[in-house]
Amino acid sequence: MKIKEYVQKYDPQNQFDVLINSYQQIEYAWKNELNIPEIDKKDINNIIVSGLGGSAISADLLRNFIADELTVPYSVNRNYNLPKYANEKTLFIASSYSGNTEETISALNEAIKSNCKIICISTGGKIAELAEANNICNIKLQKGFQPRYALGLSFFSLLRLFQHLRLISNQTDLVERIRLIWQQKGLLYSAEDNHAITLAKSLIGFIPVIYSVSDSTNSVGYRLKCQLNENSKLHAFHHEVPEMNHNEIIGWESYQEKTFHSKIISIIDDNYHPQTQKRFSILKELFEKAGVEILVLKSTEDNFKVRLLDLIYLSDWISYYTGILRGYDPSEIDNIHTLKEKLS
C-alpha cells in the first residue's frame, strides 16, 4: 500500500494533517495574547514548570533550548507535590494542555499555598478555573489537539513567556526559522518514500533503544521514546550519555539478537563536548561488535536551537509512520484512558 492508503485505513482522526500543519501551532503561540502581569526577574530565585506528558517534554525541551542563557535554577516537576524550597521567590508554571491533569492541579494548589509567582498554560479545564478563582494568569492554548500533538503550542508558549519576562533574549528570528523548517518539512515528510518513512520501516520488528546527551539533546531522545510508545504502540527505551557509559553499556556485552530484537538510535550533534563525541564513536564500535544496527539522527542546520526542533519534528513523523505501518491508530491511547478512569 501507498502511505496515503495507510493513513486512510489507520488514522481516522487524521493526525497526518495535524503533523503537516504543525508549523501553524508556532504561529498561534507566537502571536497569542499573553496578558501577563509584570514580574521583576530579580524577584525570581528559581523556576518550576509542572506538567506531565507532552507538557513536561516541552519543558524539558525548553531547558535544552535555553541552557546557554538561563541564569536561574530551573526544574521540571512531574508529580503531585512541590519541593520544599518552593516559595514566594519561585516562578511556578502549571502547564497542562487539557487543564485537567490531576498531578499538575495538585502541584498548582501547593504553589498557591506557598505564595509562588504563578502562571498557567492550558486550554481550560480545572487549571483555568483555579487560575480565575485566584486571579492567576492563564495563557490560553488553541483547542482541538491531542496533547502530544500540541507540542508546538506548549513549547513555543513557554518560550515566549520566558522571553516576555526577559529571562532570555529575543528569540523571534530563530522561531521564524523553525516555523519555516516545519512548514517545508511537513510537505517533505508527507510525500511518498521520504526519510521519516524509511527510518520508520527500519524499526518494524525491533525495539528501539535511543541514546542522546544529558543537558543537550536528552529532550529529543525522551520525546522520541514517548512518541514511539503512544503513537506506535511500541516499547522503546532511552538513556543519556555520558551516564549510560557508567552502567547500561555493560548490558550490551551479552546482547543476543535471537532473544532481544533491538536497534540503536543515536542522536548526534556537532555541539557535543569533544569527549562526548569520542564516546559515541567508541559506542559505535561496541554496538557493531555486538551485532546491533545503529540508526543516526542528526540535523544539518547551522544553529543548535534550530537543530533541536528539526529533530523533534522528524521524531514525531518517525513515530507516526511506525504506528500506521504496524497497523495501529496513532491517536488511540486506551490504556491511558483506562488508568484515568480507575484512578477517578
Tell me what the structure shows.
The chain has helices spanning 3-10, 15-20, 23-31, 53-65, 102-113, 125-133, 151-164, 172-189, 195-203, 218-232, 274-290, 304-325, 334-343, and strands at 46-50, 74-77, 90-96, 117-122, 137-140, 207-213, 237-241, 262-267, 294-297. By secondary structure, the chain is α/β, with parallel strands linked by helices. The protein folds into two domains: 3-177, Rossmann fold, CATH 3.40.50.10490; 193-325, Glucose-6-phosphate isomerase like protein, domain 1 (Rossmann fold). The strands form two sheets. The chain has a five-stranded parallel beta sheet with strand order 2-1-3-4-5, sandwiched between helices. The chain has a four-stranded parallel beta sheet with strand order 7-6-8-9, with helices on both faces. α5 (102-113) links the parallel β3 and β4. α3 (23-31) packs parallel to α7, α3 runs antiparallel to α8 (172-189) and α10 (218-232) runs parallel beside α12 (304-325).
Order of helices and strands: HHHEHEEHEHEHHHEHEEHEHH
| Strand tally | 9
Low-confidence stretches: none
| Rough outline | globular
Mean pLDDT equals 95
- Please give the alpha-carbon distance between the first and last residues: 42 Å
| Major beta sheet, strand line-up | 2-1-3-4-5
Secondary structure: helix percent: 40-55%
Strand content: 5-15%
Biggest sheet features: 5 strands, parallel
CATH topology heading of the largest domain: Rossmann fold
Count the DSSP helices: 13
CATH class of the largest domain: Alpha Beta
SS-derived structural category: alpha/beta
Radius of gyration: 20 Å
CATH hierarchy: architecture of the largest domain:
3-Layer(aba) Sandwich
For CATH, the homologous superfamily of the largest domain is named as: Glucose-6-phosphate isomerase like protein, domain 1
| Number of domain modules | 2
